[in-house]
TrEMBL record:
<feature type="domain" description="ABC transporter">
    <location>
        <begin position="5"/>
        <end position="220"/>
    </location>
</feature>
<dbReference type="GO" id="GO:0016887">
    <property type="term" value="F:ATP hydrolysis activity"/>
</dbReference>
<protein>
    <submittedName>
        <fullName>Lipoprotein-releasing system ATP-binding protein LolD</fullName>
        <ecNumber>3.6.3.-</ecNumber>
    </submittedName>
</protein>
<keyword id="KW-0067">ATP-binding</keyword>
<dbReference type="GO" id="GO:0022857">
    <property type="term" value="F:transmembrane transporter activity"/>
</dbReference>
<dbReference type="Pfam" id="PF00005">
    <property type="entry name" value="ABC_tran"/>
</dbReference>
<dbReference type="GO" id="GO:0005886">
    <property type="term" value="C:plasma membrane"/>
</dbReference>
<dbReference type="GO" id="GO:0005524">
    <property type="term" value="F:ATP binding"/>
</dbReference>
<keyword id="KW-0547">Nucleotide-binding</keyword>
<dbReference type="InterPro" id="IPR003593">
    <property type="entry name" value="AAA+_ATPase"/>
</dbReference>
<keyword id="KW-0813">Transport</keyword>
<keyword id="KW-0378">Hydrolase</keyword>
<dbReference type="InterPro" id="IPR017871">
    <property type="entry name" value="ABC_transporter-like_CS"/>
</dbReference>
<dbReference type="InterPro" id="IPR015854">
    <property type="entry name" value="ABC_transpr_LolD-like"/>
</dbReference>
<dbReference type="InterPro" id="IPR003439">
    <property type="entry name" value="ABC_transporter-like_ATP-bd"/>
</dbReference>
<dbReference type="InterPro" id="IPR017911">
    <property type="entry name" value="MacB-like_ATP-bd"/>
</dbReference>
<dbReference type="InterPro" id="IPR027417">
    <property type="entry name" value="P-loop_NTPase"/>
</dbReference>
Length: 220
């Protein structure tokens, strides 16, 4: 089966001239539907940079990313990203003025939202056990509740790919386990899930662990 995420020869440089640093130096990665891949590596090695390239939040200096067979560059990049990719960040990034439920619904209102997104948003809030708290503002919710809402928001449009950057990094063990269960479940639904992490509890539950070292990926 063709991979959902297919990255080839990704190169990323930061800075110019003498200050230029090559962070990614030819990264290849395939992630299949249903697979949860953990990306590890020392601090500053470029894990977040890689995740941003895989999700089209940043552009590479060379190489290509395909999501479900569509190139993630050029004119259609935004449309492909909105339709195909969900993102979860360590710091949740919920909109502080909106309630939890409104944050999840927000993604259902953006241009390119998939049919049924509103219903999916409501169903996700219930499935995640958040009905009681979803009326609160983010600052009134626990970290674990906020992150579950952030994951719900990321999958409201039923993306083929879910990218998570240290999603359990700000959570205690119990809340982290709930979020990890959720990511596993979402991979089980046939998504490709890529998680950047430092945590053994996460790598232990990944289907595959890859290490980023000196700008390249290797099997851990
Ligand atoms: N916009 C930018 N401009 C210049 N340098 C950057 C930029 N973003 C990241 N870097 C540098 O690129 C390197 C890789 O950063 P990145 O955030 O991808 O690493 P990371 O592996 O995710 O780190 P950590 O595990 O600490 O979060 C770091 O040295 C960082 O300082």
């Amino acid at each position: 089966m063709d991979p959902v995420v297919r990255a080839r020869g990704l190169v990323k440089d930061y800075g110019r001239g003498r200050a230029a640093r090559r962070i990614l130096d030819g990264v290849d990665l395939d992630v299949a539907a249903g697979e949860l891949v953990a990306v590890v590596g020392r601090s500053g090695c470029g894990k977040s940079t890689l995740l941003h390239l895989l999700g089209g939040l940043d552009t590479s200096d060379a190489g290509t990313v395909e999501i479900a067979g569509e190139r993630l560059d050029g004119r259609r990049a935004d449309a492909v990203r909105r339709r195909r990719v969900g993102f979860v960040f360590q710091a949740f990034h919920l909109v502080p003025e909106l309630t939890g439920a409104e944050n999840v619904l927000l993604a259902a209102r953006l241009p390119g939202a998939r049919p049924g997104a509103r219903e999916r948003a409501r169903a996700l809030v219930t499935r995640l056990g958040l009905d009681e708290v979803a009326g609160g503002l983010p600052h009134e919710l626990s970290g674990g509740e906020q992150q579950r809402l952030a994951v719900a928001r990321a999958v409201v449009n039923d993306p083929a790919v879910l990218l998570a950057d240290e999603p359990t990094g700000n959570l205690d063990e119990a809340s982290g386990a709930v979020v990890l269960d959720l990511l596993r479940e979402l991979a089980g639904d046939g998504r490709a899930v890529v998680v950047v992490t430092h945590e053994r509890t996460v790598t232990a539950r990944a289907d595959r662990v890859v290490t980023l070292r000196e700008g390249r990926l290797a099997a851990a």
